[in-house]
Amino acid sequence: MDTFTIIIIALGLSMDAVAVAIGMGLSIDTLRIRHGLLIGLFFGIFQATMPIIGWAAGRSLHEYITGVDHWIVFGLLVIIGIKMIYESLQTKTINNEIKILNMYMLFMLSIATSIDALAVGISFALLNGTIITPIIIIGTVTFVLSFLGVGLGKHAGSLLPKGIEIAGGVILIGIGTKILIEHLA
Known about the structure:
The chain is mainly alpha-helical. The protein contains 6 helices and no strands. Helix 1 packs antiparallel against helix 4 (103-126), helix 3 runs antiparallel to helix 4 and helix 3 (69-89) packs antiparallel against helix 6 (161-184). The longest helix has 33 residues, at 33-65. The protein is elongated and about 55 Å long. Residues 94-98 have low confidence and may be disordered.
């Protein structure tokens, strides 16, 4: 898989984390750079770790599903994309009483926003791709965008999260379709 496609996947995967980071920025009364760094670090590390787990699982299954691997990759990316779009259209409330920078809360939000990356890791394995470059790119993109998202949330309000998640979902569906077409051609 080429670097450009990996960057596009990283952008798509990071959208959940960015939307949550924007929401977190909304709920932090006195925003400091360390808040953005902490949130970006948590989200970036988890977005980079989950594909490794998925890749390891996918490598162990590869020999059994080689004939249909492109359909599985397509299915996983489309399902993740549809899930992201569906969840973005649901009504969400932000409870300002929650201690947003509580380590347990950051840990749980990091897991929740990176589950999709687990399935993408499986896709990398099924495509016989390496994992080092993708995890570096995915982790870095998620860190930077989440860091920026915290500040955006503080200054731009709640204007963007829904649209960001929809864009991420559409990107993943598009990449899944591209992979399927390339393997069928």
